[in-house]
Structures are given as C-alpha cells and as structure tokens.
Amino acid sequence: MVERRRAIHVRTLMANADEGLAVVGADGKFRLFNETAERLFGVSRGRALGQAVSKLGHEELTAAVARARAGDHEGEHVPVMLDAGGRVLSCKVLGFTHEGAPACAIVVRDDTELTECQERAEAILDGASDGIVVFAPDSRVAYANPAAVEMLGSRASSLVGRQVSLDELLGTHACDGEECACDLPDAMARSESREVIVDGEEQRVLAVRANPVRDREGGVIGRVVSLHDITAERRVALMKNEFVSTVSHELRTPLTSIKGYVDLILDGEAGDINDIQREFLSIVQENSDRLVSLINDLLDISRIESGRIHLRVEPLDVADIVEGAAETFRAVAEHAGVSISTKVARGLPRAAGDRDRIGQVLLNLTSNAIKYSPGGGTVTISARRRGGFVEIAVADPGIGISREDQTRLFEKFYRVDSSLTREIGGTGLGLSICKTIVELLGGGIWARSAPGKGSTFTFSLPVAPPEMVRTPGVEGPLATPGGTVLVVDHDPDIAGLVATFLRKKGYEVITAHSAAEALSLAASQQPRLITLDVLLDDMDGFDLLQHLKDDPRTAGIPIVVLSIVCDEGRSLRLGAAEYLEKPIDQERLLGIVGDLVGGVASPLVLVVDDDRAIVDALCRTLKSRGFATARAYDGREAMAAIGRRRPDLVLLDLRMPVMDGYQVIQEVKSREATMDIPIVIMTGHRIDRDKTDIVSLAAEHLSKPFSPEQLVERVEALLDREG
Ligand code: ADP
Question: Which residues contact 595 (CB under 8 A, 6 or more apart)?
Fold first, then answer.
C-alpha cells in the first residue's frame, strides 16, 4: 500500500516537473520518461520506454550516457548541449548504481531563450567600441570582449578563466608580492577609475573604470571593467599645450625688446621726454606688462598641464614673503584707495615652498583682493601655524563671491560674470595656477566669502622639516657694484638691452652673439659674471654652459641663464647660479647680478655654525668692518651657499648636524673651482685624531672662545695675504 502511494507520488512529481527527466536502466534502455521529456525530445513515452538512448538521434547524448554508465564520471553531472530542431536543449547526465548495476539519469531543459539572450548580450558587447572585461566573484576573468582584447593585446584573452588582479590585467602590476592592495578581498567591491598607458604595437592611453556588479540584495557577484581609449584626446591635448607653449615663447622675444626699450625711454635713458610722450609711453608700458603677464599665465598653464613645472623647495621665512607682497602692492593699493596691513603670528616656523612660486601665489591673491575691493578699505595679509602647516590668508572687504561661484573659482578660465568683473578684466587663470602650485607643494587653497561682505583666500604650506637645506643669501654692505659682465645673446637687440640695464648700474659690459665668441671672451676677459641665453646658432646653450663650467679658467664665473626656454632645472644642474625668464625684469636682473657679483670692495665671508647666536654675532661684527656675509647653519647649507656665490673666505665650525665641517673641508678642497678658498676652522673642541689630515687643509684654526676683534684681525690678515 505504502509502496503504491510512493509510486503515485513520484509519477505526479515527474509529470509536473519543469525539466524533462529520463532514467536509463542497466540494459541501456529507457526505464522512465516524463511528459516534459516527451515534449522536449519530440518522442512519446510509449515509443521511448524500452528503447535505447541512441534512438533519440543525439550522438553527444548517447556518448555521455555510455560514459556515465561506465562509471567515468561517478557522482558528477556531465553537461551536454543539444540542438533539437532549432531549440537549444541543455542536458545533465548523472551515472548511478541501481541494484548493483550501472544506471543513469538525464535531466533536460529548454535553454533556447536563455541562450538567445546570452548571444544577444555577447553580440552587443562584441560590437562595443569600449573594452569590457568581467570578473567573477572569485576574481577569475569571466569574459573579455574583442575591444578589450584589442586594447590590452593577447594578454587579455590568455587571462580569461584565470584569477588575476586588475593591475595584472592592465599590465600595471607593480607590487612586489608582499602586502599588495590589489589582492585584498574587498577589491571586488571597489569602484575605481584611472588612466593607464599600455604598451603594444603602439602606445595607448586608456581611461579605466572598474565597478562592482551587484545582485538585487546588493551582494557583489562580480566586477565589470570598462576601457576607453583616450589616446587621441591626449595627443590633441599635448599638441594644444605645445602650440600654446611655442606661440607664447615666440611672443616673448619681441616683447622682451618692446618692454625693455620702453622702460629705458621712460627711465630717461634716451634723453628727456615731454609729458605727452610720457603719457603715451606709459600706456604702451602698461599694456606690454599686461601682455607679459597673460603670456606668463598661459605658459604656466601649459607647463602645469604637461607636468613640466619646476619647483625649487626650500625653507621659507613666511614673514619676509608676506612683508614683500605688502610692500610690492602698497603704491598700487594706495592708488586704488585701499590700505594693506600684515599680521604674522610670532614664532612662526619656516614653511617648505618655492620662494618665487609662493611669491607669485601671494601676489595673485593680493592683487585680486585690491582689484575686487572697489569701495576701498583694508586688505589684511596674515600668517599663522595650524598643525603641521603654515596658513597664509588674504582678506579683503570687497564685493565677495556667491556660494555657487565659490565652487568654481579655482577652475581654469572661470570668472564670476558681473558687470564689475567684466570691467576689471582678467583671464580667470590666476586662481587655477595658484591652486596647482600650492597643491604641488603639498598644501591646499580655499576661499571663504559672502556677497557684499568681502572674501578671505587662504592657502597652506607644510612646515619645513628641520633637515631641509636653505640657499643662503648675501647680506652686508654691498658697495657700488662693478666689474665686467659678459652678455651672451644671439639677438643683438636683446643683448643691447641687457647691456644697457647693466651699464646704468655701473657695470662694464662686453657682448657675444655666438658660443665661439662667448668662450673666447670669457677666457680672455675673465668677466665677474656671464648672462647667457641658451638659444644660440652655433652651439646649444646648455652645451656652452657645460663648456664654461668644465674649463678651469671660467669655471668659477657665476652664470645667470636668461631664457625664453623654460629649463630652470637643467640650467641649475649644469652649474648656473641663477635662472631668469624673459622678458627680463630689470629689477630682478640687477638684484641677482648685484647679489652674485656683490661690491668689488667687499670680500664675502661665509659663516657656518649650527649655533645661530654665534653666526649672528660674527656676521654683525664682520659687516661693521665692511665685509659682506652669508650664513649657513649646517654643512649642506654651506655647500649650497658656496655653489651660489663663491665666498672669499669661510669661517667653519666642525661639529654640525646633517653634514659636519670635516666633510665641508673635503668637498671644498676637492673641487677645482673652490679649492683655493681659505677656510678658518672655529672650534671649542679638540680635533678628532683621525681627522688631522683634513684639518690641515684649512688655512687657520681659531679656538673658541675668541673675541670678535681677534677674528676680524685674522680674516683681514688672511684676505690680505690671499689678495
Ligand atoms: P582673474 O582675476 O584674472 O579674472 P582669477 O583666477 O585670479 O582670474 O580669479 C577668478 C575669478 O574669481 C575672478 O574673475 C573674480 O570673479 C573672482 N575673484 C577672485 N578673487 C576675488 C576676490 N578677492 N573678491 C571677489 N572675487 C574674486
């Protein structure tokens, strides 16, 4: 009775199953064949039962059943796909043992629609021009469309079915196998986007985006990676940058002459001019200045975008920079009815930054503050410390900026659209340049403002770490400058202009228009300084710089590179003392030349000691006796100072952090250009025994304590002897 009921149950189940079910007995013939199987195979039960599987006419199925019955795949489902008159049947064949004899079950399903759906999806993916790669949840590559294979090369197709990270797929895997972020299990759930360069027959730039694929409950069931080829866009951007850069450079050359000569006429160098002439020329001057700053902005942007911006990071005295900016603008501000005040917190640490670039940021913010404060009032520049940063803020009482505009201020070319901003004029580039510079230096920039209530722009710079090297400047009584300067420039107009600037200040000037001329004049005339344009006809200017630094007769002459080609880094590496961009700013040029050549009458003494109080006292004494001085607080600073301007004598402490005095002596005495600089050792300690050889290279040894008079006497005696 129970047996019978069970049989009815089984039959009902079989009859109503969505899947076709058939059982093959030990004799290889069908024992069971349900209604769905009838429909799918197109054979009635009556005809199937007792017949061999081969009668269905599907060879693959017959073979799979034979293998299953032979026990080949004990306990495993063997999948078989069949084509049954245009329908796709997917079968699973399972071998088992029934009453000691081999039997087998077949489960069959109609997958026609599913397969069509899959084929349609694949056709879409195959036709897509973006590359698409799908990862299974176990980070196996499940699928890569043809575009992906084309973009990533054969690597992509060979990775299908393998467990790899996104980096391995892209060929950017750079981890050394230890703790590698791309192997983290949560990588699957991460969304990320980046640009990668892939090498192949031709290099491509790909924009890669990876996103998790989630099921309805939000569980991660895979990851889809899309690849978009942006090679062409990048190429165009590069061309645009190069174009802007070339055009700007080309504009600079004529502008250098226009601006320079107008400045000279206005300075009265061409004789007296009447008031009308002065007025007209002032307009020319103003507009050429505007053009220069526009070109500078454009060049900065193109440099930033192509990653060619060069930053010289050193510890900065923020108070100095703040005062400098206020000073620069005082006259302009007064003219605009604005006053400038400064507020620098006491004991402010030095900030790490590029002096010129930070100056540029602060000038930009201050100039905006004045520009956008038409009602007058006070612009305040302040600085304070906040955690590991120094914050510098420029606050104005001006027109203010709406919340909406604030979010876009730092975008390139963005200007608030109002009648006032239209009238004031500008490029909308300044703040975007400021942002990039500050961020490259590791800081940030932000604005706080409300319309009609004024604005405060603040930027931050990291506090300089104590071991950072400073390039010390020269202080002291710079007596009237003088001596001969060699000006090298292939353009006679510009050489003439630089010469006029220098002659005005009392220098004698000789000019050279070619590298050959420059080399022979430098060696024969021994100028005190050389200004060098790197665009020459007969030799690359950088090669000339190298030649001058390699020749012992000219190696010690400081060289200032004046160029429209921005390559400050290369110039300084090759041994240039300074780098100045054209169009030349007269004041800066004369400042730099004065700094490097100094007064003919004042010998330069470099004082090196980690005790700042001692350095301070010595410099004061020396300056009062007519010496120029430079300070350094450790060995590396000392070497930087010597590289910048050759001192006539070095006062050197031996025990110092970073690089000690012994190392300084060794360095100075091993270089041809500096070996004859007399060094006076000042120390309160006994000299290390094993270092007496090094110490013997010094000219003199003063034991601390000594009186300032003693010191000056020794310095004077030594310089007399040398001189
Ligand atoms: P520019 O001043 O040449 O237009 P910037 O990039 O320096 O370019 O400034 C972008 C815009 O931000 C300006 O056009 C102006 O609308 C707004 N802006 C900048 N500084 C101030 C400020 N201190 N007060 C009000 N608006 C400002």
Answer: 473, 474, 645
